[in-house]
Amino acid sequence: MEHYLDNSATTQVCPEAAEAALDAMLHTYGNPSSTYTKGREAKKLLDRSRKLVAGALGCEAKELVFTSCGSESDNWALLAGAEAMARRGRHVITSLVEHDAVRKSAEELERRGFEVTYLKPDRTGAILPETLLAALRPDTILVSLMLVNNETGAVTDIATMSRVLKEAGSLALLHTDAVQAFMKLDFTPKRLGADLVSISGHKIHAPKGIGALYIRQGLRLRPFILGGAQEEGRRAGTEAMPQIAAFGEAARIAKAGLAENAANMAALKALTKERLEAAIPEIQILDTAAPHILSVSLPGFRSEVLMNWLEAKEIYVSRSSACKKGARSHVLEAIGMDPRRIDGALRIGFSRYNTREDVDALCAALEEAHRTLAHR
Fold this sequence. Notes:
Blueprint (H helix, E strand, L loop, with lengths): L2 E2 L10 H12 L10 H21 L6 E4 L2 H16 L5 E5 L4 H12 L3 E5 L9 H7 L4 E5 L13 H10 L5 E5 L11 H4 L3 E5 L10 E5 L25 H16 L1 H22 L4 E2 L7 E5 L5 H10 L2 E2 L13 H5 L4 H5 L1 E5 L6 H18 L3
Parallel strand pairs: 1-11, 3-4, 3-5, 5-6, 6-7
Antiparallel strand pairs: 2-8, 7-8, 9-10, 10-12
Helix pairs in contact: 1-8, 2-8, 3-4, 5-6, 9-13
């Protein structure tokens, strides 16, 4: 029996989202820009889906632009955001524990002549408000900090970061990568005080290939993709209607069950922590606030060996972000974790589909690995 516990990497597409995508491919397959009946049908579906995702995020539909993924949303927010504010200054603030989509965008900004400050996190991967305040300068034009760290589950208080900026009189735009937070935490862009928010479909049981960027009303960004007038001229290219329709359905379902699902994931996370600490005294676990991400480490064991052991039992976890493809985690290095602990780290990611049986299987397998592999 399969036990999938790598939901921070991607999620199983829910049946409702799959059905919405199939219906869009087989029936509502017109181009939303076409003016005849099939096009108008597709445009109606596009508008409905946008309202569903915007409703789940807690913003106006006109503030939401569909993208191909969270990485595109991050790239667009940083590159276009910095460009839009360049006449006011050229200083950008981000952190050492951001997703590579933000990190590499920041490096690109440095190549374009911007100065970037990388904030150091606390021991869990969160960024503290006083750290941001200390780095602020009169020429700071953009701050980008993720809401939930994708490797540790640490939650950065973006609402407080927004207040720090306002109280300091800063005109900097505030962007947050909320890919791991969307439909896991209860937030809205307005409550966060964010100007730009990145989200992704495949983390909430929609297909891969669809994301969105919240752009605060009144903020104008240069289009990231040039061409046609789709998305009200903000992003060219014929809309990916099957993925968009699926994203809408996945968001609708996730929003309806947000509180219950978050509570269930948090309970499974707590149970896993309790079971592993009781069975393996030397295990080291990061205690973080997100309900669905648990970072554990068995010093003296290699992550790859443990993952192979688990995979043989059809239990799936990861060692860090799937985007890194085996490279050592820059997040765990940034929080000052001992190299031996990093080398034995595993990331467990829960979703609403996980059950106690998944936890039982994982804990039993890790207990067995601890007993068996230690003697080889």
